[in-house]
Here is the input.
Amino acid sequence: MDVTVKIRNLSVWYGQQKALETVSITVPKGSVYAILGPSGCGKSTLLRTVNKLILLRDGAKVEGNVEVFGVDVYNSNSLSDEVLAKVGMVFQTPNPFPHLSIYDNVAIGPKLRGQAKGKELDKLVRWALEKSGLWDEVKDRLSRPASELSGGQQQRLCIARALAIKPSLLLMDEPTANLDPLNAAKIEELIKELSGEITIMLVTHDADQARRLASSGALLFLGKVVCEGPIDSIINGSYCDLLQNLVSEHLTTQTSKTKSKEIKKRG
Ligand SMILES: Nc1ncnc2c1ncn2[C@@H]1O[C@H](COP(=O)(O)OP(=O)(O)OP(=O)(O)O)[C@@H](O)[C@H]1O
Ligand SMILES: [Mg+2]
Here is the structure.
């Protein structure tokens, strides 16, 4: 099996707080790989470690091995820049450059990398905006600032920005969470269309979406991988049950810990 991302024994801390613990996952090339789990379990952190954005966080510490396209990105700086240039990211909260125009938000990546200019760049910007389903809504105001767009439009602009660099690996953090059903469906179509051609790591809270789009994935809980494998093995009827069991088990443990502390205090 060709592999795009191989992570072994990855642990991540924000200061004293451990956000991921000995995570190991394997993302097959050309697949859509779903990352599932409850809020705060470390899904966004996991994506951030793949493209090293985690290093921008104050006090963040990374241990373990992260290979992207066969390059150990935390231990080979010269190669890692080259490899990470092929990685695009769509963030959980839309983060366009507000002072830049709609056009420049999409063009900035290819411009900075010297991938295209002039008419070529115009074509690329249009292609990316069409793919993200935004073209018709913005084609007459490409020079207006991105800040004038609605939240959902900003999200689709960020998807276009990520596509414009023609990534080989796309990290998508809940890309449809801010979208209405019609636009969410368009983005799902796009993900289907891109899969096979490129690899997509998709964070989603929506088990049905994972089933529709992904071939494999991982379920995280409290920073650990609880199960990994074909998407059906994770979701098939058992995803919600499994999650509920984990949460109630965790709550029971927490309650008994608190109770025993109280007894000790009293005692
Ligand atoms: N910059 C930071 N500093 C300190 N702790 C952080 C930071 N970013 C995230 N965390 C903590 O790390 C843990 C994992 O956060 P993360 O954002 O990866 O979760 P998530 O699974 O993406 O959650 P959600 O589904 O709500 O987006 C959480 O406990 C969070 O509070
Ligand atoms: Mg998140």
Summary: DSSP finds ten helices and ten strands in the chain.
